[in-house]
Amino acid sequence: MKRVLVVDGANVVGARPDGWWKDRAGAARRLHEQLLVADIAYDAVVLVLEGQAKGGVRAGRDRDVRVVHAPKDGDAAILDEVRALVAKGHEVVVATSDRELALRSEALRARSVGAAWLLSLL
């Protein structure tokens, strides 16, 4: 069983008022770079990006970080990832401050943590 952190990219980026709205792709790239070097206690990280943020990081795996480009909305893609990972028997934690998404993830047997928690590790 792997411990997997699924990151709501839009929500985590949006939790820090650093001008991300002027360059969503750049903000996604910075978050991806931080996740690559962060010392977090997970076997794998899945970063879900949507909209303009997808332009900042290509989809695919980069070391222990896998980037997923949401075809439509990020929440649906995150929930799809959670379902698949839980079905494989992995322990899944979703990093988001979106209360509705956290509740929906928990209903699928994942745990949730706030964006501030993740940002404090980066």
List descriptors.
globular, alpha/beta, 5 helices, 122 residues
In quaternary terms, these chains amount to: single chain
Q: Unreliable stretches, pLDDT < 50, 5 or more residues?
A: none
Helix share bin: 40-55%
Mean pLDDT: 94
Main beta sheet, described? 6 strands, mixed
Order of helices and strands: EHHEEEHEHEH
Radius of gyration: 13 Å
What percentage of the residues does DSSP assign to strands (E)?
15-25%
How would you classify the helix and strand content by structural class? alpha/beta
| Gross geometry | globular
Instruction: Output the number of helix runs.
Output: 5
Write a structural description:
It comes from Nocardioides jejuensis. This is NYN domain-containing protein. By secondary structure, the protein is α/β, with parallel strands linked by helices. The chain has a domain of 67 residues. The chain is built from 5 helices and 6 strands. Helix 4 links the parallel strand 5 and strand 6. It is globular and about 40 Å long. The two termini are 25 Å apart.
Give the helices and strands, then pairings.
Elements: E1 3-8, H1 9-14, H2 24-37, E2 44-49, E3 60-62, E4 65-69, H3 74-87, E5 91-95, H4 99-107, E6 111-113, H5 115-121
Parallel strand pairs: 1-2, 1-5, 2-4, 5-6
Antiparallel strand pairs: 3-4
Give a concise summary.
Helix content is 41%, strand content 23%. By secondary structure, it is α/β, with parallel strands linked by helices.
